[in-house]
Amino acid sequence: MARPRMTADIRLFPCLSDNFGYLVHDPATEATAAVDAPEAGPIVAALEAAGWTLTDILVTHHHHDHTGAIPALKERYGCRVTAPAGEADKIPLADATVRDGDTVRVGALEARVIETPGHTLGQVAYWFADDDAVFVGDTLFSIGAGRVFEGTYPMMWASLLKLRALPDATRIFCGHEYTESNIRFARTIDPDNAALKARADEAARQRAAGKATVPSRMGEEKRANPFLRADAPELAAALGMAGQSATAVFAEIRERKNKF
Ligand code: ZN
Ligand code: FE
Fold this sequence. Notes:
Blueprint: E1 9-15, E2 19-25, E3 32-35, H1 40-50, E4 56-58, H2 64-67, H3 70-77, E5 80-84, E6 96-98, E7 103-106, E8 109-115, E9 124-128, E10 133-137, E11 140-141, E12 144-145, H4 153-164, E13 171-174, H5 179-189, H6 194-208, E14 216-217, H7 218-224, H8 233-238, H9 246-259
Parallel strand pairs: 3-4, 4-5, 5-6, 10-13
Antiparallel strand pairs: 1-2, 2-3, 7-8, 8-9, 9-10, 11-12, 13-14
Bound molecules: zinc ion (ZN) and fe (iii) ion.
Zinc ion (ZN) binds near residues 61, 63 and 119.
């Protein structure tokens, strides 16, 4: 018999200045994972509000705003910490390491590990295919992408292509609430994009209502996010780079954003 779809109960809430905290709960087994550990207080509060106990932490990358609360959460709950193999040495208290293609279980829920180097060299995403959800850390944002700190532009572009290949219905849970500033930048390089205009209107409504702009869906990001459109001829032309490689166009977009 096919497994039922859409079983995970996912909660998101703000942490630190602009990070997202995430809980992924399996109602069948009561297992609950935090994806990254930015700040203990809001994570504990979200767990207690839901009546859940933390069993797992799934870490996307080693930066402190994603790992700083691991020791406090581990001490409180004795949870299992799963970390990317490529940077587990920089992540406190890792119990298990994962690589591209591995399967991670949270109770009966399953996530596929997708290695997405660039922002950091070992960064991974966790894709819960049955729940149309992917947790991407700081690789992909709504209408944006992470800064390329440790890797190269070709490496980051290749990582974004791996994420772009996920189904259009996939909900993207990213590490930060950066959407509005990403939109302001995106409209400077892709001003005639109707999908981007629609996303700008939606995000403005969400923020006015005090809501998060996350998650978005991969289908709309593919049409509206310039960092996923570096191989679109019209975007290359708008940048004065007609005929140049997607990698070159991606690097130009990222460098313009760095100076924006
Ligand atoms: Zn980061
Ligand atoms: Fe971050």
